[in-house]
């Protein structure tokens, strides 16, 4: 989820510029997204095309097991097939000499990495207040037949992320995360440690775990205004290649928000913060594209969203890769009892329209932000801190449950694909295209 946001003046101008039209610029031709004319590239699981509704959650690696179970069981009950979760909790040094950028650096005492000021390197917490929490989330997800996208660091300082790496090395410029050789090596050390870790519950190395859908290089990686796009693209190329070299089993995605170079006045089409979605998705080590969508937070107006979806599906079709709308949300207001008091009709209308558009235009998947569950620590439901939460018993969950079957069984993207003879419990990418003679040709990949 997005922690930062553009300046208020830019937000207001974006709303005024886009909210009274169908989109900021004209949409691509419908035929370009017609799977009968231009088949989509698909995910594949056990030899079958794999389209899905998914969800996000950030607390599964450190909350009590009953809370973890509740979210995962809610996902299965809703027909959610894939969950995207945080695979990082980074802090400063244990002795306090190097500060933590996010509170005390832990989540209820849990952390995965800390700084050793003597050895001048990160140390890993493999114990019960560390990666054993992530072990349980993966093991339970596997038992329930769910797949998990593991995100490896954060652009924002929540849970430590990139800013904590910078703090370890006494750096302050955000772009140094992508360029400083010491930071890049520390990040690679984390990739190695996590991929080769053996889950204490399943006795399976993470890189051999079929529960993992994909690795994601970061949550919403950005530079700052004026950061050259080439810096992030080079970093993603290096890190995706490294991941593939140590784990050939799993897919890799960038985790970017999808900013594009385009003919639009809105800042999401200026790619001026180092993110060029097309260039990132085109990298040989990146298996699929990701994009996020927050019309309120980004100040886009609601007509912008149709164009945003179509443009990313078009990029995916051009590059011959799948694309996932992996975060989206509209806020609602709740009363003291947790009941929605404002914003629900707009949310339901928008979620319905967005999922229908992804489906009809040959998209592979949507993943909403945020699936939350019961709070066994304090009673009731886990608090709706950012106003995006979805609970299994509410109207939003019921709407999204209704899209699970169409995505899984009738999505045009998957309906246009041909099942593969190569079966694997790891998710693969099946590249489907039309030959020069008009016949469908299938290319396995992953």
Could you list some keywords that capture this structure?
single chain; 446 residues; alpha/beta; TIM Barrel; 8-stranded parallel beta sheet; 4-stranded antiparallel beta sheet; 13 helices; 17 strands; globular; disordered C terminus
Strand order of the largest sheet: 10-9-8-4-3-15-12-11
Give the end-to-end Cα distance, rounded to a whole number of Å: 27 Å
Mean pLDDT: 91
Shape: globular
Query: How are helices and strands ordered from N to C?
Result: HEEEHEEEEHEHHHEHEHEHHEEEHEHHEE
CATH architecture: Alpha-Beta Barrel
Radius of gyration over all CA atoms, rounded? 21 Å
Model description:
The protein has 13 helices and 17 strands. With 446 residues, it is an alpha/beta fold. The strands form four sheets. The chain has an eight-stranded parallel beta sheet. A four-stranded antiparallel beta sheet has the order 2-1-16-17. It has one domain (51-304, 329-356, 374-410): TIM Barrel (Alpha-Beta Barrel), CATH 3.20.20. 33% of the residues lie in helices and 17% in strands.
Short description, anyone?
This protein has 446 residues and is an alpha/beta fold. It is 33% helix and 17% strand.
